Amino acid sequence: MVKGLRRIFAQRALLRPMQPWLVVGAVACACLVATLVALRGVATLNQPEPDAGQHMVRHMRYTFAEVARVDGMLQAMRIDAASPEARRLIATAADHLHIRFEVLAGLSRGPLVEPDSRVAPVAWALLDGLDRLASGKTPIDETSLADLRRTSSELTRRTGDYMRGVEADIDKALKIRAENSAGAWFEVIGSVTMLLVLSFISLALRWRNRRMVAELRLASGRDSLTGLANRRGFTEWAMATTAAGPVPGHALLIFDLDRFKAVNDRYGHLAGDALLKTAADWLVARFGDRGIVARWGGDEFVATLALPPDGHADLAALIGERMTDPPELVFKGEPIPLHFSCGIAVWPQHGATIDATMLAADAALYEAKARGRGRQVFYEAGISERRDRAEALRTSLPQALAAGDLFLEFQPQVHVGRGTVTGVEALVRWRDAATGTIIPPGLFIPILEEGDQIAELDGFVIDEACRTAAAWNAEGRRLRVSVNLSPRTFQSPGLAARVAAVLARHGLTARQFEIEITEGVLLIDCAQVGANLADLAALGVRLALDDFGAGYSNIAYLMRLKPDVLKIDRSFVLEGDERIRASIVQGIMQLAETLGAETLIEGIETAEQLRFVRDTGCQIVQGFLFARPMAAGAIPAFCEELEAQYRPALETPLLQQRS
């Protein structure tokens, strides 16, 4: 039974919310059944003993003894028939038999009252014979005695047979009663035992449920991966701290793991989980001694620091000291450094409630990530407003797209040797619906990248650029259109398929569409980036490496990418010795020629810069000297104007016009 109970308790079904109630109901029903069975057994035991002839058989034994005595007397009688002694003996025997027969005749059942009895005729015949002899009606002689002897012997035999039959019935009835009593005792004992067992089960379940509730309460406040308090556990801590009295000063820190998604994408979720555990252990070691550390969700953690009575004048130094020597995870032999962005607020200075302080710390965290990863930012006035504006931008993107507040402008790319526009770069713009002003791309693009809405924006840019190029094609002006995409977009699968679908929808060839790639995209350690670039190249889409020379591109990257265009950064036409700059640009052009790529120099704003570019031999340029970004409808007119300027002379007029 104990083993059975252990198996029952071992079943996880008992841990489900409704199972304890079902078990309690089953135990209650079983207790009711056991009680009813016990009551039935007790009732059986309390029943009176059934009369199967026991009372009658006692009288029969006396009667049988009396009949046997009379039979013995008659068998032994050898006296004178006229002797008074003989008549006296016969009269006495008759009196005794008469008494016994009257008793038997007064019973409810017996040999003298049963209608088909074989004893009664003989008994009454014997009694009548004795009475006749005793009264003298029949002479006492051998003939009369012989008749009485035969009658008494027959009565003795029949009485004995009758008694044996009755005793057999009594034995059978008593046996049945004994069996019923045994069953009743089994029911009573079994039911009592069952009630004891069920009582034990009820107590065990009650203890189990109490422990289970305690475990669930503890588990509900703990993060299963890191063992830290979770959001609920942190909230319970805050409520307990508030209920204890005046809220002591606490620094509230929200940590966000930098590049956590990139680690997940490259190494898998096992590495991500290991990274979270390592981060949790490090945070507990650094901040657990003066507060609570909790996992807020995803790659965000919350920690508190109890402040000394003198306030938080040295809080920045204290936190900075504890943030030194960030941890490092070694996964499959490869080190993965951990870096945190951190937002800090003080409770209750920056918020009367824990929720308000959390909002302040979250705003500081957003500011930290906006300033660059791996930073710690204290909450101050104005941070919440900036965060709110950023949040408003994030949430208003769908409405802005639907209302046409987002649109593209296009900056021409000019072939200075032929005086033609070879292509245009599409640049996204966002007009504030409330003020009508243009929101700088440098403001809203990072915000959308943080909130994962950048894919929606990039999808709009691709579709709108292709639609515009198709419209120019219909007007007879075939121009290549170039777009800029976020590095996040290159990390999502199916980019080439989406581009192919847009090209097909607008009837555009792949070679008329160009995607500009920053060197930062090449540095992303993600297999999906390489797969997307390879698929785009296979599709026939042109790839342009933007801001070349300003970052960390190397020959290996270029050989893998095989770009169609190297866009040389404008810094080479602005800074440093002209001869050195010219040599560098010419070297880049030779490299591009080796790779089979074109070159384009960006940021040409003056005639002197254009002269420098022409001296280096570069033919394709882009910059304010020729045109600022313009609406799609202005591009055909600009192309015609540029071509008209080049018809009289291919060089001088252009230089004079742009001076």
Overall description:
- This protein is α/β, with parallel strands linked by helices and 659 residues long.
- The chain has three domains: 1-220; 231-380, Alpha-Beta Plaits, CATH 3.30.70.270; 403-658, Alpha-Beta Barrel (TIM Barrel), CATH 3.20.20.450.
- Helices cover 58% and strands 14% of the residues.
- It contains 23 helices and 16 strands.
- The chain has helices at 2-10, 19-46, 54-76, 84-105, 120-135, 142-220, 231-243, 260-267, 269-287, 315-322, 354-371, 383-403, 441-450, 454-474, 487-490, 495-506, 519-523, 527-539, 555-561, 578-595, 607-616, 635-646, 652-658; strands at 250-257, 293-297, 300-306, 328-331, 334-337, 340-347, 376-378, 406-415, 420-431, 438-439, 480-484, 513-517, 542-548, 565-568, 598-602, 620-622.
- The strands form three sheets. An eight-stranded mixed β-barrel has the order 8-9-11-12-13-14-15-16, surrounded by five helices. It has a five-stranded mixed β-sheet with strand order 2-3-1-6-7, with helices on both faces.
- Strand 13, helix 19 (555-561) and strand 14 (565-568) form a beta-alpha-beta unit.
- Helix 5 (120-135) packs antiparallel against helix 6 (142-220) and helix 11 crosses helix 12 (383-403).
- The longest helix is centred in the first third of the chain and has 79 residues, at 142-220.
- The protein is rod-shaped.
- 29% of the residues are buried.
- Mean pLDDT is 80; it is low at 1-18 and 653-659.
- Residues 390-643 form the EAL domain.
- InterPro entries: Cyclic-di-GMP_PDE-like (IPR050706), EAL_dom (IPR001633), EAL_sf (IPR035919), GGDEF_dom (IPR000160), Nucleotide_cyclase (IPR029787), Rev_trsase/Diguanyl_cyclase (IPR043128).
- Keywords: Membrane, Transmembrane, Transmembrane helix.
- The chain crosses the membrane at residues 21-43, 184-205.
- One of its GO terms (molecular function) is cyclic-guanylate-specific phosphodiesterase activity.
